[in-house]
Amino acid sequence: MIIGVPKEIKNHEYRVGMVPGSVRELINHGHKVFVEHNAGIGIGFTDDDYQAVGAEILATAAEVFASAEMIVKVKEPQAVERAMLREDQILFTYLHLAPDLPQTEDLVKSKAICIAYETVTDARGGLPLLAPMSEVAGRMAIQAGAQALEKSNNGRGMLLGGVPGVEPAKVVVIGGGMVGANAAQIAVGMGADVVILDRNVDVLRRLDAQFGNKIKAVYSTADALEKHVLEADLVIGGVLIPGAAAPKLVTADHIKRMKPGSAIVDVAIDQGGCIATSKATTHAEPTFIVDDVVHYCVANMPGAVPLTSTFALNNATLPFIINLANKGYKKALLDDVHFRNGLNVYKGHVTFKEVAEGFNMPYVTALDALNA
Ligand SMILES: NC(=O)C1=CN([C@@H]2O[C@H](COP(=O)(O)OP(=O)(O)OC[C@H]3O[C@@H](n4cnc5c(N)ncnc54)[C@H](O)[C@@H]3O)[C@@H](O)[C@H]2O)C=CC1
Ligand SMILES: CC(=O)C(=O)O
Ligand SMILES: [Mg+2]
């Protein structure tokens, strides 16, 4: 198969779909890889590094999209990239369609085969291709939140861990999955007072086993959520209903009643955000203020630490890329229900239920679409 790796073009996005080591594996399997000029330069990989493992360098994204049977990326295709997608071309990347009607419509129109990293599942109920970036974003959320609390950023002027004789900040993490647990790990390490809310009791048990009495694991009723959010100095939004738009758990009224100078980091913003006042921001301008609360809502947080993130992502995606290339998309997806759960749009049909329902579009199961 011919695999294409374009350079990412989202604001301050320096990750790349494949590092040279991954390219080498594909070439060893007998495939051909086209890489856009300077695709890896943000993390120090030159065209020569890619050529050394057997890739061919193409000057423009247009040439990559025109010649590859499968495009491997990181972020959802931007409008100019969507215009280059071709019928029957495989697109393997993050998509986050639920909050993004224009993208969904363009992917349907393209008639491409669009597989989203974030909805591929595993046998243990996890999301193996989202997990590595959730680890990164969860850990980063506390760094971002600590900065947002600084006075120069309009925060309360509070140190997360306090100092001897002065109380630490209260960090409230909503959603105790991959983002939540990783945020908690860093917040605990910095000496903050940490509460994690989740509505899945098994998740609360796991957090209790991991952190013991260093955190409070709280069942997330509307009541509990309101109490803790109103007491918080920093709120981290990390809830997810896979593939669906995030529920708005923190309301505009909560934000009005939070302490002036408190901060929120809505990591779930890529699925639309779990805080009513959130709107997606970029690394160039990551924060804004609503009712004296500092909001950080960057939709590609791991892009800020692309060296760590690209390798973490590639470690997870590489076996799936090899599988698609070796077997072809049809067999790879039909053989494995968990991989098939990644199929969001197939040759003009929406094949992910929550996306179709959210936009009132016709829905075809991935299995029916592939067997048609
Ligand atoms: N902004 C960014 O750059 C990034 C954003 N993300 C996003 O972060 C979000 C969280 O991802 P993960 O932690 O991997 O998901 P996860 O599935 O591991 O965890 C989500 C948790 O939310 C809980 N939850 C669902 N509904 C809830 C509710 N109503 N109340 C309380 N808890 C609830 C679930 O029980 C689960 O434990 C996703 O939207 C993901 O796409 C991930 C990486 C980077
Ligand atoms: C998951 C995601 O949105 C990211 O890594 O940018
Ligand atoms: Mg207020």
Note down, in words, how this protein is organized.
GO terms for molecular function: alanine dehydrogenase activity; nucleotide binding. Substrate binds at residues 15, 75. Pfam families: AlaDh_PNT_C (PF01262), AlaDh_PNT_N (PF05222). It comes from Pseudoalteromonas tunicata D2. InterPro entries: Ala_DH (IPR008141), Ala_DH/PNT_CS2 (IPR008143), AlaDH/PNT_N (IPR007886), AlaDH/PNT_NAD(H)-bd (IPR007698), NAD(P)-bd_dom_sf (IPR036291). With 372 residues, the chain is of the alpha/beta class. The chain folds into two domains: 2-119 and 306-371, Rossmann fold, CATH 3.40.50; 132-299, NAD(P)-binding Rossmann-like Domain (Rossmann fold). 37% of the residues lie in helices and 16% in strands. The chain is built from 15 helices and 15 strands. It has an eight-stranded mixed β-sheet with strand order 3-2-1-4-5-6-14-15, with helices on both faces. Strands 9-8-7-10-11-13-12 form a seven-stranded mixed β-sheet, with helices on both faces. β8, α8 (201-211) and β9 (215-219) form a beta-alpha-beta unit. α6 (131-148) packs across α7. The protein is globular. It starts with a strand and ends with a helix. The relative contact order is 0.15. The mean pLDDT is 98. Pyruvic acid binds at residues 75, 94, 118, 130, 133, 270, 300, 302.
